[in-house]
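Lab notebook, bench 4. We co-purified these components, and the gel suggests they stay together. Before we commit to crystallization screens, I want a quick structural picture of the whole thing.
Request: model the full complex, all chains together.
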Amino acid sequence: MKVHEFSQLETKLQLRVRESGDRLAWFEYEGKVITRTKRSHGSKDLPGHLIRQQLKLKQEELAGVLSCALEYDDYVSILKKKGLIVPPD
Amino acid sequence: MQPMTISEATPLGMPLPPVTPLTRLRSPAVRVDADVPPREPPELLKRNTTAEKVLFAPNIDGRLKIMEPFVVRVEWREGLVTARIEDIDEFGYGCNSGEALYDLGKTLAELYLFLRENADRLSPDLHSIWLKLSEHIQLRQP
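Here is the predicted assembly.
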């Protein structure tokens, strides 16, 4: 994965980011932190398979996000299907 | 096969005559039985060509202390070295294993502080990661 693809993920999935030593990015839904990932400064190539796993996406789902076939709402559905977004008590 | 006897040397370099040990614990000579099969290395240290596991307890941040080391899987993949803790699904990466482990150390500190700050609004998945991470890392008392 390239840095610009990571930036694409941040935008498409509306990830929140924090610049610290690394760039920490996380996905929030209804005030809850659901998934998180990161990229290190200075690296051109990123371990896409590990970033994908942290975002709880399958290979084809990640490809879908990068190719604009999947959007924010689709990501929410994916997380709901996987039981990572649970309805409040 | 005959057991081998390895003798110590005197300060002047003259070898001591082999002495049969009176006890196993206070022996001037070490007896090595050649028939003893080599010990199997611990599972953690077994290597293959693309990955290895190491115990990792970095000094990651002055505010934090490591209570228990992490088992880290270091892998070489597509020109990139990754250091991953499978238990908490966290990783570092770089051009070599030193860089990857250093990156992992920084990430662990950031992750710990981030999860601590947001502990009351974590998904169940991240909450379980937070609990596991807390077994390894704690905040230093001021």
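Chain B has a mean pLDDT of 78. Worth comparing against the SEC data before the next meeting. The first strand of chain B starts at residue 4 and ends at 6.
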